[in-house]
């Protein structure tokens, strides 16, 4: 027993002494921070940190790659004053870079030596495991921002598929069938916009409309964001963040462009595989038999009307407006509804949404239905 107590005292002494020799400072020592319940990277990858590995789904991946992917998490945000900062890359949970202070003092950098051994949350490993980048199967339900797995884009007027050309040249619209280079994923980019990712792992860029589009970007910046404008059914126009529409250019060899001022026959695409019900647990819900009307559709920004026509009294009614990734933009409790027609006011949504595709999920007692609305 005495030996055990002695060992504990020695361990405590050594740990205290190791921490006491360091006096961390924020922001100079900070490599990560806590926000929204998870740990996020905020680092220059100094002292060989970029070479460190973390295992996801049985494979070791570099810290830089993981940090880049975490920026796509639906709860990610940049560091703000007041967030708890940490010395190592995962809020005190490692791995550490090659500097000796990280091994000895991986914790809080805003509390001096007393914060050296404090640990915060880890990265959202469950979300990371769902990412295609790390061997996941679908990009994650909510977190992955994937609207429904693999999609294809086909020029409606020419019946040809759009190809990424593997990023090696300008994208074209001349394929008779959909192989690997004609398959994409669509991800929410916020504010009703989406980014489009090719099977080569690169993002589609509209090149600000100055030249033919390419699928060769490592990340989604301003030029890699689009709005899907519903034309009815699975037909869409694709509007770039430059305010111009994508054209398949009649399948021409010079590639597709994003420079049209209006929607003509060359600017309409059939998008197959776009399943906006995937996120948010909408699939498999019981359908409402009562009549639900949403009009006009497409609608001017925030200016659409909803009416519910119920054949009997409803004890509990709610409405949710969700963006294409499944993120709730507005939730409204309607309480109980009498039988008959009930108009629903959504005046407060006018400042909450921009142009793009949204889902309207209506729950009446234990039954749900989902309708899609296009906001112009």
Overall description:
With 376 residues, this protein is mostly beta strands. The chain folds into three domains: 103 residues, no CATH class; 123 residues, Trefoil (Acidic Fibroblast Growth Factor, subunit A), CATH 2.80.10; 85 residues, Immunoglobulin-like. Helix content is 10%, strand content 35%. The chain has four helices and 24 strands. Strands 6, 7, 8, 9, 10, 13, 14 and 17 form an eight-stranded antiparallel sheet that branches. Strands 21-20-23-24 form a four-stranded antiparallel sheet, with no helix packed on it. Strands 2-1-5 form a three-stranded antiparallel sheet, with no helix packed on it. A hairpin with a 4-residue loop joins β13 and β14. The longest helix has 19 residues. The chain starts with a helix and ends with a strand. The relative contact order is 0.10. About 10% of the residues have low confidence.
